[in-house]
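Possible regression after last week's pipeline update?

I re-ran a chain I had predicted before the update to compare outputs. Posting the input and the new output here so someone can diff against the archived version. Not blocking, just want to make sure nothing changed silently.
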Amino acid sequence: AGLQQALGRAQADGECRAVVVCGAAPGPFCAGAEISEFAAGMDGPNLNDVLNAMEKMGKPVCAAIDKVALGGGLEVALACHYRVAAASARVGLPEVNLGILPGAGGTQRLPRIVGGEAALELILSGTHVPAAKAHALKLVDEVAPRGTDVVQAAKALLLRELASNQPLSPRRVGLRTAAPLTQQTKAAAELKWGRKRRGQPAVKNIIAAVDASHMPLDEGLQEEARLFFELIVTREARALQHMFFAERQCTKVPGLDKRAAVDVRSVGIIGAGTMGGGIAMACAAAGISVVLLDVSEAAVQKGMAVVASNWERSVKRGSLTPER
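New output (post-update):
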């Protein structure tokens, strides 16, 4: 809602000649949507409506990307007429890692800028791309040198463009179309990512969505929305999103002050293999009591034998004494 209101004020202000969209300093441009809202339902105005209106504005809009522009954050930047990134910034569409696809024009605008094959690779990999690579792909127009304020760099770009008096139409990504994906490209992507993301229906839906970028934008967005909502209710998407939250929640121990050192006197280690045995040795060397667990007594004894063998070699080398 805040972006929509700010764009409305800028459009109505007769003294405003151009717009810079940026994150609240010193934070990132935008790290994406609030994932917990996927299940509960997204609140506020429809992001596609906001982005389409921004793209159609009669005043040039430039995204000033600092730190990260991920997911919905990158989709906002793609709808801007220009994009400037800080040298340390990273961009990406990681929705596939949650079992879904970009749902605010990412599958439609990205191919219109970088081409279908490059868009497939970026979306199916879900990787975060550094600013230099994004510039090489023409995903961003400029990279601000290190130590340069990216907002000031965006303002400078807009002033140059205003002085050139060039029409905005070529900068409206939604007016472009991407070439249809070839059968060979689609088959190669499905083979590669079908193996890497085995059992995930998002792979086929992402390929189909990117393929729709040869349509007019409105039709492509409708196809993207259909494929997005098809995925959001799948067991695979729910499982990946559950895992996303669980991985972050397990690092939060109630009552534990991360700033204070904890006096650890005993540890329990599950798994007596190479890693578990190494951890057990390190803890024991520090004077910490260790309990080693595994699926069977034989597995524990095997692990203990490896630990004993390692210590014997250390004694022979002279790095440990028999007493220690």
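Follow-up from reviewer: compared with the archived run. The beta strands are 19-22, 61-65, 68-70, 82-86, 90-92, 129-130, 142-144, 266-270, 289-293. Marking as no regression found.
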